[in-house]
Amino acid sequence: MAQTSTGAVLPHAPGSLPKFYEVFCEIKGSWHLAGKLAIINGSSIVLCDYYDDFVESLFPNGPVTPEAQVRLQNPPANVKIVAQDDVRNGMHLDRIQSMSLADGQNYQAPVAPVVPSARPSVFHYRRIGMLQPHIIEFVGGKALLDGKQLATDELAKILENVSNGVGSLRYKS
Amino acid sequence: MAQTSTGFTLPHPSERLKKDMYDDAAIPGIENKMAFRQTQDVPGYWMTLDMNSFRDINAVHGHALGDSVIKAVGTAISQTILQSPYAKKARGFRAGGDNFAVWAETPEALPYLLRQIHTRMDQIPLIGGTHKVSIGAGMGRTVDEANQSLAQAKTTKNTTLGPHAIGHVTHSTL
User: Fold this and answer.
1) pTM to 2 decimals?
2) Are B128 and B58 a contacting pair, CB within 8 Å?
């Protein structure tokens, strides 16, 4: 038995995930949510029951009986049973809550987290034998040496010099 | 809660499981019958509520509208608790179709919450232009006591201080 933060007790062992079903009943030609049940380790637990004990009369709490198993697979004509996983997987679009255009006006789009702007990609490049450093910039996907665009092999040579210690790159202060 | 690299928050699977197990299937913020049963032994104070003349609404205006009314009432209860000073010391439940319950850690929370629920429900328009949504409420140290107060108040149809009233209003026609 696992206990939740609110003190409620989860009646199943970790690892044995329950399966949830919503139960609908037909009243005067339209379908209404009548309740919800969970099947856990072969037992049925009624979680919601909105029309007296309608759901519990179909699926009594306790081990699932052969009759209840049949009802789960082939419910009576005025009853519809929908697996919650199927709703989440988009197999019952009618269970997706509708939203009016007026509601949409109040919709708040998620805001991306603010990322602090990075330092400008401008570096001093020094190499053994140079009297003074050169400036390397990375702008718009291009590498510039003292303002002149570097070819791919030139850039590769600079990076090779840096990696084997012949040269160094430091942020330009 | 798990945070993704983009900063969005995803519910942890166990939190989703808790919601699946204990939240009402139709009204966000309200706990279900199972949670209601499991909470009955938790020390605290209870208020039970049910709607007046709900069958009339169903009979006259149909069950679809009835479902909407229940959702409006349940939302009024959940929002009242959430936005009250007792948000972490009170919980709202749907015990059945139009039967709700509120558990609170302290007795003074219940009349406060009832007044606030009343205020919210006043904003619900007349159903079909004819029916004013109203609820009865009873309070007690246990669910049974609260139900007795509720039944007594429903019988007298008055705002009364019943014997099980923990010193506060036991019924209100909202």
Assistant:
1) 0.67
2) no
- Judged by CB atoms closer than 8 Å, whether chains meet at A8 and B94 is answered as no
User: In terms of CA atoms, which chain A residue is nearest residue B19?
Assistant: A4
> Closest by alpha carbon to B153, among B109, B112, B114?
B114
Q: A45, B17: Cβ pair inside 8 Å?
A: no
Q: Give the pLDDT score at A106.
A: 64
B46-55, B57-66, B113-122, B149-158: range with lowest mean pLDDT: B149-158
Mutation to test the B interface, candidates A48, A54, A85, most B Cβ within 10 Å: A48
Domains annotated for chain B, with CATH where assigned, are: 40-174 (3.30.70.270)
B93 Cβ partners below 8 Å, 6+ apart?
B24, B30, B31, B32, B33, B35, B36, B39, B100, B101, B102, B103
Q: Measure the CA–CA gap between B151 and B146, rounded to whole angstroms.
A: 9
According to the model, what pLDDT value does residue A77 have?
A: 92
**Whole-number Å distance between alpha carbons of B112 and A162:** 71
**Dihedral (CA of A120, A121, A126, A130) sign:** negative
B27 → chain A, closest CA residue: A48
The average pLDDT across B116-120 equals 91
Where are chain A's structural domains? 18-95, 122-171
Q: Which residues of B102-116 are buried (b: 16+ CB within 10 A; e: fewer)?
A: bbbeebebbbbbbeb
Cα separation, A47 vs A36, in Å, equals 5
Structure ipTM: 0.79
